[in-house]
Write a structure and sequence with these properties.
Layout: H1 2-29, E1 61-62, E2 67-70, E3 73-77, E4 81-82, E5 92-94, H2 105-133, H3 140-165, H4 170-194, H5 203-240, H6 248-251, H7 254-281, H8 285-306, H9 313-336
Antiparallel strand pairs: 1-4, 2-3, 3-5
Helix pairs in contact: 1-2, 1-4, 1-9, 2-3, 3-4, 4-5, 4-9, 5-7, 5-9, 7-8, 8-9
């Protein structure tokens, strides 16, 4: 039982990190509105690959809810129909959730793949919860977290719908990000809790590491939160299109300067945490991995700041932040739990 739950927790975390990676690529490529509706894409389960699919013509059949791009507007079929000799506006309704009126097949499929990965993430998440119900008497917290995983995945999907319906409303994007981080925290914690791992050093030092780990987690979350505001400002500047990319950094508000300087605190805290763990445990891979990830995240941030915001670096910066958070949660659990005697196979 414990082995299956452990593997499902790993699979769930892997899929959540993968969907965050896919989402960051969507943002980098500007494909966030590649599918203007949700959960379908232009009213189709499998999105179109050519604008011809979205073009009205005589004798063409449409299902209710499918969309066409007509006179620079998206229209939605009111019911199943076959078009006649002339376009009949009474058969169609203007799509009014937003005024996005562009079709790019590449953007459409990037966004569709992102949604597909998100849907596939539900498989290990749901299986974990269902299997954890039988484990509730041994460890009710595992079952509770399994339920919260299902809840936050559904909540994240709902926020994704709001992002699409609101044409990438900035604050909904931030909420979407943090709902994904909640999933990262849940499954990183579960992996640490379910893993058979015994620690033998003194409880006083355990508690010091735990406190510092919680401080580092708070600093990292605040840094990510500031980063989402910087990203929103960058999106606004990019949409205006009045400045060259090399001028974007200079146009950012004081939040960018705080975000940039705050990285020193994050690096210092995680560096101290890694040093404490290595000093007490000797050879230990995870604190070194954690420190390497936060350094790579900062280097990616420096590349964004000093190399004119290269688009490819934007998802890399986010990915390193998400992986750093996952490893930090895992390390915190490992050094909070002094023994694994309460975990049985």
């Amino acid at each position: 039982m414990i082995r299956r739950l452990y593997l499902l927790a790993i699979a769930s975390l892997t899929m959540v990190l993968l969907v965050m990676t896919a989402g960051s690529i969507v943002r980098m490529s500007g494909a966030g509105m590649g599918c203007p509706d949700w959960p379908k894409c232009f009213g189709y389960y499998i999105p179109p690959t050519d604008v011809e699919t979205l073009t009205w013509r005589e004798g063409k059949s449409f299902k209710k809810g499918q969309m066409i791009l007509h006179e620079e507007r998206f229209l939605v079929a009111q019911f199943d129909l076959t078009s006649g000799e002339r376009f009949n506006p009474e058969n169609w309704e203007v799509y009014t959730r937003h005024d996005y009126t562009h079709f790019d097949p590449l953007h459409t499929w990037i966004e569709y793949i992102n949604r597909l990965i998100g849907a596939l993430t539900g498989i290990p998440v749901l299986l974990f919860f269902l299997l954890s119900i039988a484990y509730v008497r041994k460890d009710a917290l595992v079952t509770l977290l399994g339920f919260l995983g299902v809840f936050f995945l559904g909540f994240s999907a709902w926020l994704g719908k709001l992002v699409v319906d609101g044409n990438l409303v900035p604050h909904s994007i931030t909420y979407h990000m943090f709902s994904a981080l909640a999933l990262v925290a849940i499954y990183a914690y579960l992996i640490g809790r379910l893993q058979v791992y015994t620690l033998s050093f003194r409880s006083k030092r355990d508690s010091n590491i735990t406190r510092l780990a919680w401080v580092c987690m708070a600093l990292l979350l605040l840094q990510i939160f500031l980063g989402t505001f910087v990203r929103e400002e960058v999106d606004i500047i990019a949409r205006q299109g009045s400045l060259e990319r090399s001028m974007w950094i200079e146009s950012l508000s004081w939040i960018f300067k705080v975000h940039r300087s705050f990285s020193i605190l994050v690096l210092g805290g995680i560096g101290l945490l890694a040093y404490w763990i290595i000093r007490m445990r000797g050879v230990s891979a995870w604190p070194r991995i954690l420190l390497a990830l936060v350094i790579l995240e900062i280097l990616a941030g420096m590349a964004l700041a000093y190399l004119n915001m290269p688009a490819i670096v934007q998802p890399i910066h986010l990915i390193f932040a998400a992986f750093t958070f996952a490893v930090l949660v895992y390390v915190t659990v490992q050094y909070y739990r002094k023994t694994s005697s309460d975990v049985t196979s």
